[in-house]
Known about the structure:
This protein is an alpha/beta fold. It has two domains: 6-44 and 290-397, Aspartate Aminotransferase, domain 1, CATH 3.90.1150; 63-285, Aspartate Aminotransferase, domain 2. The chain is 40% helix and 14% strand. The chain is globular and about 60 Å long. The protein starts with 14 loop residues before the first helix and ends with a helix.
Amino acid sequence: MPFLSDTLSRVQPSPTIAMTNKAAELKAEGRDIIGLSAGEPDFDTPAHIAEAGRRAIAEGRTRYTAVDGIPELKRAIRAKFARDNDLDYAPSEISVGTGGKQVLYNALMATLNPGDEVIIPAPYWVSYPDMVRLAGGTPVTVACGLDTGFKITPAQLEAAITPATKWFVFNSPSNPTGAGYGWEELAALARVLLRHPHVWVLTDDMYEHLTFGDFRFCTPAQVEPALKPRTLTVNGVSKAYAMTGWRIGYAAGPEPLIRAMAKVQSQSTSNPSSISQWAAVEALDGPQDFIADNNAIFARRRDLVVEGLNACPGVTCPVPDGAFYVYPDISGCIGKTSAGGTAIATDEDFATALLEEEGVAVVFGAAFGLSPNFRVSYATSDAMLSEACVRIRRFCEGLR
């Protein structure tokens, strides 16, 4: 009798974590490594939010809470949805989990049965397909390349829907591409979904506040209110509030789904950290001006990286609308050999050789379901990004 569950054979470890760990190992060996693989802001948690966490400890708010969030945080989340998205939810329609990943996982575990299909535009965040598999469903990926701006079209969505489709997973701005969907683009997708009332919408809005230039964020239930009764809108405080380690994500959706998600959470982790919940109340209710300041820094870094990568032979790097990633195409590098003698047959070969020969850690595109590309996180200093671009250009110029 096998000891490990057969379920594990359907999933793979996170490639982003694997690359980050590999870079850390090389750095520990004394190598000069620039890590561009982790999706984490390099800013400290704002002082007023950190102070709220300390205050929660000092006031003894360190005990178990309600399974899916304290009333004060649910109130703050409701206020956020009303303020930012023109969406009205009752407290019973709000769920709080240990990061956005757990909230997504809870929803899939609570709803998927064998044979259920989940449409996932590719490139996608690496965890979506494997979470679907863990929950017993079948991921149906739809390739969305440079020609569509890395975004799914209404025709592609229509073609992917079958009687077995249960969810459409949607992420804007996107990890890994930074591509964002405007109001009219979302409205066009909504018209498709309205024709298929059995399909639910799982929208990951984690990068809502990290947008640049003229791009204006919107979310499906906001654009098409008729979708609200079958939409779970997921968000969190990790990215915009520089609170990745605090582990607080949240969602709003129909009460029966929220109750089912709470049941899953009650038998897994139970409540999120009480201290983190109180810090998240301050994040959502407190001053928001630092977000614009951080975005200005991210926008400058984005422009630096886009310019640097587009100067590399064989690389085409589009300009993202938000988040803190770029997803350059490296079609012009495939089929060549690196200066160190590595044959570049895939984007994984490219990323591995780049790390070994130039000490730059990126994540290869196949991990996100679309090749040949790689993902760069520009959530690090200008100096590190400039040096990384110099090394990547040197690596590309050395290809023969």
